[in-house]
Amino acid sequence: MRKITPALLATTLMLAAAAPQAHAERGADHPEVSRYPGAVIEGYDFKEYEEAQLILSRPINRGGEYTAEKVLPVEGRVTYIHYEMPKTASALQVFRNYQSALKRSGFNELFVCDRPCTEANLGSFKTLMKARDLYLNGSRENQYLAAKRGNTYVSLWVNDLGEPNAWLFVVEKGSLDDNQMAISGESPIAKSLSEQGRVDLYGFQFDTGKAVLRDSSQTTLKELGKVLQENPTLQIEVVGHTDDVGGADANQRLSEARARAVTEALSRTGIDASRMLARGMGQTQPLAANTDDAGRAKNRRVEIIVQRPAVTAATQTQANRTAPRPQAQPAPANGNAGESSKPAADTTRSVIDSATTAIDTAYKLKGLLGL
């Protein structure tokens, strides 16, 4: 067995700290824009429908806030990708290659701002670009371009953070699908779920203090079941409510049991149980005062709440295409105050493998040095 001396251990730890780590990327390239060779994705975000703004003239500082004489607001699918480039490349080299690649693929330049386009930190342009809380950073070698092909718009910054970095926004202009909450069906239940996202049902009948559905509940059960059958992607929450007769704890348990009774009855009709969540609220959400029979009757109900609406085919296709979303990461010290930090590279090599590799490297160096 190798004997690890204090000196060798110190060397090993230094090597382990310096050793490059494998990187797990946070997203995927946009199919309309090629990746620069050797680039690594450091940040990714996708929104099915958002607003963005392309800069079409040199940014200027007015009263502490950056603006531009010409801008182009665009709404649609917005993809954000932050790339880190190889250290051997220059920011100019990367920028010129992006220009050429976009032209070759049919994009027309709308605006180009060569270095130094601005010496401000890119984080200062979030409002101008409508970039929300997306990570932008760096002020050295800033270069920018905006380009268009058909309904696809590209907004790109390239700068130097010790190595070239590219900050890419691709906007696929389109109209908002504001019918995603639509639920098909002509029944009162379907219309209420479509228009309001919820409905209170009084057709589920139970004996006092019991959680067994009466036969008189079948009409409401069939109507709700039909809505679920006609909208196979619809997911619901079934919420039981009681009046205040009896103790609060007993009413809580009763409301939960009644909600489960409804979901179990729907399951027996062929509705997948995974599409339904049963929950009880007891007497905590009355719709009327519990001072008379009419008020208590209004409070005893089963509420159906839309959890996930019926998804259109186009929405589902886009969801399947979309890469995994990254988690927010902290910003580097050289950013503006208030900027979020640059995401750290994901470590995929295990600690044991890293230590073993470092030790082996240390012994190789020892042999080379004749120690």
The helix tally amounts to 9
Determine the fraction of residues in helical runs and give it as a percent range: 25-40%
As a whole number of angstroms, the C-alpha radius of gyration is: 30 Å
Instruction: Provide the low-confidence segments as ranges.
Output: 11-22, 310-371
Shape annotation: elongated
**Strand share of the residues?**
25-35%
What is the mean predicted local confidence, pLDDT?
82
- E-strand count: 12
Whole-Å distance between the termini? 18 Å
Strand arrangement in the largest pleated sheet: 1-4-8-7-6-5
Q: Specify the structural class.
A: alpha+beta
Brief descriptors of the model:
disordered C terminus; alpha+beta; 6-stranded antiparallel β-sheet; 29% helix; 60s Ribosomal Protein L30, Chain: A
Q: Overview of this structure, please?
A:
The protein is an alpha+beta fold. The chain folds into two domains: 23-176 and 326-359, no CATH class; 188-310, 60s Ribosomal Protein L30, Chain: A, CATH 3.30.1330.60. It has nine helices and twelve strands. A six-stranded antiparallel beta sheet has the order 1-4-8-7-6-5, with helices on one face. β7 and β8 (164-173) form a beta hairpin. Residues 11-22 and 310-371 have low confidence and may be disordered.
